[in-house]
Structures are given as structure tokens and as C-alpha cells.
Amino acid sequence: MKRVLIYVAALTLFGFSQFGLAALAQAKQRAVLFEFAINQAEAVHTQPRLNDSADGKVERATEGSVEKTPELKKQMMLDRNAASNDQQELITQASLRVKQFSTQLKAELGAAIQSGGLNAGVEVCHSKAPKIAERLSTEGWSVARTSLKTRNQENTPDQWETDTLTQFDARFKQGEKAENLITIRSDKKHFRLMKAIPMDQVCLACHGTSINPSLQKTIQKYYPNDSATGFSLEDIRGAFTLQKDLSE
Ligand code: HEC
């Protein structure tokens, strides 16, 4: 009897400890998800700029001055409030796609560089970047990257993208954080969002001012019209550019 009791007690304790561990793991997962949601929310809500839409649905937000004058602060509040619930939802969807694009490409690029060096990195970027973009272009979304100086000409910006990239450069040079550089634009038929991509130490080898000659050869082989070099750490390299067709 005593033995049985001990056995039951041990089992109960074991059960509790398992339950405790599972609960702990769940709580941790929730905390991570929560943190992710907060980051997303912060990233997209800090300063989304709302551009004039074709039918004038949303008023133009601030431009130029980035000094945090009371006027600008007021305007930033307006920006946040101006995004309707529908737009907030679209911003969230777009941000998730941006995050996926960036995580997947970084993983592919990192693995390629580690196993085959920078030349392999170029090849992987060449074959995988457009594929990842295509894979994420579902449910009416089109997902891509663009820049004022492109490597792949398919990524050439249109007029709105050119204007937005120029604006991002100016805002970044005046001290705004790259991760806050987001602009949205919407009308009844389309929703568009751009998010700046800053330069980073690892990008310099392939987009910086001095490219290794053998790497240069590989780049030229795939991209004879490459103009995506000469960037420094103080530059915005380009932007993610997303569009959703709302008429579907
Ligand atoms: C191994 C070389 C390599 C490295 C490292 C690299 N890139 Fe690229 N990058 C490329 C290639 C190749 C393309 C063209 C991809 C394509 O065909 O779509 C490209 C394209 C881009 C584009 C799309 C616009 C364009 O020019 O066509 C952006 C934006 C970009 N890279 C940003 C970055 C950033 C930011 C980093 C650092 C985090 C980085 N790249 C690191 C090789 C590289």
C-alpha cells in the first residue's frame, strides 16, 4: 500500500512537472509571439506616411522636415490615426510578407556564402530572390524589391517608387531610423507599401565601393547592366515594395 502511495505520489509529481514545463514553454512562445507583434506594430505604426491617393481618400502627410517640431509630432499622430482599420490590416499583412521575404532571403544567402563564398552568393541571389518574391505574391499581393540603383533591371522603380526612395534617402540623411521608413499609399483599387532596406556590413562585399575582381566578374556575367555598387553603410540600399490589388 505504502509503495503504491509512493508510486502515485511520484507519478503526480512527474505529471505536475511536465505540466509545468509545458506551461512554461507555452508562456515563452506567447511572449515571443507577443514581442513579434509589438515589433511589427512598432515598425509599421511609428511613422507610416500616407500619400495622396488617386481619389484623394487620404490626406498627404508631412514631408521634408524631420526635426521633431510640435507641428510634426501632431502630423505623425494624424498619420497613425488616418490609417483606417482596413489599412491597418493591410499594413499588417504587408509587414508579414516583408518579414518573410527578408528572413528567407537572408537564410538562403547566408548558407550559400558559407558553403561557396560570395560568388555562390550571387548565384543564389540571382536564382532565389525572384523566386521568393514570386512565392510570396499570393492573394492579390505582389511582392518585390526595388532601388534607385538596381542590379536586376526587373527591379527598376516606377514613378511613385522613385519618389518614395528619394524621400527615404532624404529622411535617413536627416536622422530618421531606417527601420521607421515606411510609406503607404492607397485608393479604392490598390494598396501599396514600401519599406526601406538599409545597408549593412555584410552587404558591402557585393554592393559596396570596392568589389573583389573575381566577384565583379560573376556579377557582370549575370547582370551586365549592374548599377548596384558604390553604396556605403550610411546609405539606404533600396526598399521592399508591395502592392495589393483590392478589386479582386
Ligand atoms: C553575395 C552577394 C550579395 C550580397 C552579400 C548582398 N547582395 Fe543584394 N543583390 C545581389 C544580387 C545578385 C542581386 C540581384 C538579385 C535579383 O536578380 O533579383 C541583389 C539585389 C539586391 C536588391 C534588389 C534591388 C536590385 O538592385 O536589383 C536589394 C534591395 C539588395 N540586393 C539589398 C541587399 C542588402 C541590404 C544586402 C545586405 C544585407 C545585400 N543585398 C547583400 C547580391 C548580393
Automatic annotation (TrEMBL):
It comes from the Bacteria. Residues 74-241 form the Tll0287-like domain. Keywords: Signal. Residues 52-68 have a biased composition (Basic and acidic residues). Residues 1-22 form the signal peptide. Residues 47-68 are annotated as: Disordered. This is Tll0287-like domain-containing protein.
